[in-house]
Amino acid sequence: MQCPVCREPLADAGTVLDGLRGRFDPCPDCPPGRLDPRHPPRDPPAPCDCGRRSLDGVMAAVHAVLVDEDVLDPSAPLSGAGTPLLHPLFPMHRLPHLPQRSLIVVVRRATPVSARRLLDAVPEVRGVVLDRGIVPGAGGATHELLAGCDLYAEVRFTPPGPLVLYKQASTCHIEVPRPADPKVAATDRALRRALPDLFVDACAGAGTLGLVAALRLVPEVVLNDAWGPAAWFAGLNLAVNREALLVDEVEILASYADLREIGVRDDPVMVAAARGAQSVRVYHGSLWRLPPLLPPAGARLAAIDPFGKEPARLAAIARRWRDCAGGEVFIP
Questions:
Q1: Lower CB count within 10 Å: N or C terminus of the chain?
Q2: What is the pLDDT of residue 138?
Q3: What are the E-state strand segments in 194-293?
Q4: What domains, with CATH codes, occur in the chain?
Q5: pTM over 0.90
Q6: Cβ(213)–Cβ(244) under 8 Å?
Q7: pLDDT tens figures, 35-64
């Protein structure tokens, strides 16, 4: 497996999970490094002799570079430097201390030149993304990768087991993993109650809910998303987590570059497939054109998690899905 952004090899789920212990731990000599995000930082602290410094210290260094590049006012608070995104990203109970190339910074103002300087001057920075004030994928819009690589891994500890989910920060919706995710919990409860033969994650994003169903060993799982990058990462994440499933090799049937160029698609096209004691398929297309492609099954359960959660709209979506696909549907 290869990163579609920087072409570096990608670790599978087991390797990522094995590397979490101590990933962001300070050494005994690391200073605490917590700063007040409401105020502009003073001179950024240097890394400890172990090579790490606190997340706040790293963001202070980012702040200093952006000020020097005239894209950030010196009076801006530390929080104004941008939104930090760790790689890998998982629930933590104390301030992380960062090794090199472990941080993506999502900034509100920057240029390619200032972004390149951030990579050169702040060794912890992995990539710099310009925040365009949109939700990536909604209407086909994306943020902009200014420098480096913005691929990161989310680690989600779900009831049936951990998942590692790769995403690109500039093209996919960012959700910070929490110790307990209500959507995952709702999906797992529905799975244990309904015991479906087929589970459909109709708005799959990068694949979280569909892969929870696969971890629960549902015989047939279908993931689908209308947004090309999300569908491709759902297929990649099927491959990344393959060892925890009852599937053989995963076949990726489309390139990331092609799906990113297409963006939103209506007629679903299969972009990844895995077969074995389970069958898991990933499609890119409109959920409303997916039902004719679903395999025959007894008990069907579908999760639909769209953007926008107005109750009347959700009820209409659920009714329409039942009419065209049958089975049980829920909004997590």
A1: N
A2: 82
A3: 198-201, 220-225, 247-252, 269-276, 279-284
A4: 13-153 (no CATH), 181-330 (3.40.50.150)
A5: yes
A6: no
A7: 999 999 988 988 999 999 999 999 999 999
